[in-house]
Amino acid sequence: MKQLFYFALILFISSTNALAADKIGVISRDANLYAKPFKDADTIAELPATTPIIILKRKGGWYEIKAAEKQGWVRLTRVRLNRQSGATKESTSGVGELLSGLATGRGKSSQDTTATAVKGLSEEELRNAEPDLDALNALDNYAINDDAGDNSGLQTRQIDYQPGTAAKSDDTATPAKKTSYEEDEE
Amino acid sequence: MIAPLQTLSLPALLLMLSFSAHAFDFGSVLGGGDDSGGGSNVFDIGEMISGVKDISRTITGIDEEDEIEIGRDAAAVLLGASKPVNDPELQRYVNRIGRWVVNQTDRAHLPWRFAVLRSNAVNAFATPGGNIFITDGLLDLLTSEAELAAVISHEVAHVIQKHHIKAMSSLNTSGLSGVIKLASATREGRSNQMTTQLVGEVKDMYLRGLDKGDEFEADSMGTVIASRAGYDPFALMAVLQTLDSIDPENSGLALLYKTHPPASDRLDKLEPVLEQFDEPAEESPMLQKRFNKYVGKHS
């Protein structure tokens, strides 16, 4: 009886979060499950790495998830989405439905995308490209040269490129002549 | 006018900037650099110095006019491989986001152009001097304006750091001076055609991709740039998580993964960068509304 209640509850929750209800993933590193999307919120559970999860939605650096029969929030950085196979999920929510448009065009769903040929900017098309200066000049029609106009309330912030950027690029400043994903070139 | 500037001292660099033939926008070096953002135009010497440091670390000794010229050639090549989507409202929309984003950097004065290209491959490209292209296939995977701004910001970071010039220089047998020579030759013969050699080197660069470290740097800088613009700092990570969830054998990802580190590596590198961010300010629902309007209707 109790199980049935939870089942119904989960169904209810799922239906109210239809947009992302079918995103599944795993905990990538041991993580706390919080009651709210804040670091000082109560911890509901400790989730070890590889715990399977269902992602309900994202809010900034947090995912609201269901895992180990509980629901709460984990840091985005502790989650990996599960790999989709070639076949994509049915599109239910319109805009931006995960993967549904991949290699098939927006809105078309449930195709084996791996079998679809790439059209536009494939390696071969790039190799054979004839420079198109007219298309380049036509971009001027859409350019915005100073003020971006209505920014719908976006508030600029002052944030340095540090830390991270400088330290990281120093680490890797020497241009690697060959990296693993270049090797099949030539 | 062209000097090997790899290791300029800070005073020399400042001198050079102040005598630059281009209208260098000093205001934008001070951070923000945009008047419409509201309350961000505070003189910040720390930011200015860190901006100068960024330039001196990566400067490749190329005149900005040459950089823009090479960029136009590179853009023409990419546009030879795919045309812009015929949707003026969508194109205008990505330019509006792009302009808002670049106004938060110290290179807002470049002739920035943004376009969505017709391609079912998942990819985005930048050229020197500020041409930025995002494929239809990548746009399809995005769920919010913040994610679109994050992708754009990653490409903007490549432009700001001149990563493509660096990559082309390492491919050209004469290094940077060889690339610059090609650009001048092309500019002089503009009425005729681009030199075949430059076209070849541009293609080579896009087929091989940039330095791996430069991709990580663009993730990290792009995250900062998008955040400066008021967008959710975690949006790029969300995009990378989406990419990570796609079968890497998918043909739509072939060129992307040939030229970029695996999404999982990029996620690992990006994690510590995000430690500095608290929760983002609440985004206005208007953002989702207009994203849906311009991106959603497009098909």
Question: Main attributes?
Answer:
heterodimer, A: 186 residues, alpha+beta, SH3 type barrels, two-stranded antiparallel sheet, 7 strands, 18% helix, extended, disordered C terminus, B: 299 residues, mainly alpha, three-stranded mixed beta sheet, 3 strands, disordered N terminus
Q: What can be said about this structure in brief?
A:
The complex is a heterodimer of chains A (186) and B (299). The N and C termini of chain A lie far apart (65 Å).
SSE topology string of chain A: HEEEEEEEHHH
What coarse outline of chain B follows from CA principal-axis ratios?
globular
How many runs of DSSP E, i.e. beta strands of chain A?
7
Please, what is the average pLDDT of chain B?
A: 82
Largest interface: A-B, 91 and 134 residues
Specify the biggest β-sheet of chain B. Answer: 3 strands, mixed
Structural class of chain B: mainly alpha
Please mark out the parts of chain B with pLDDT under 50 across 5 or more consecutive residues, or reply none.
1-59
Roughly how many Å is the radius of gyration of chain B? Answer: 19 Å
The structure class of chain A reads: alpha+beta
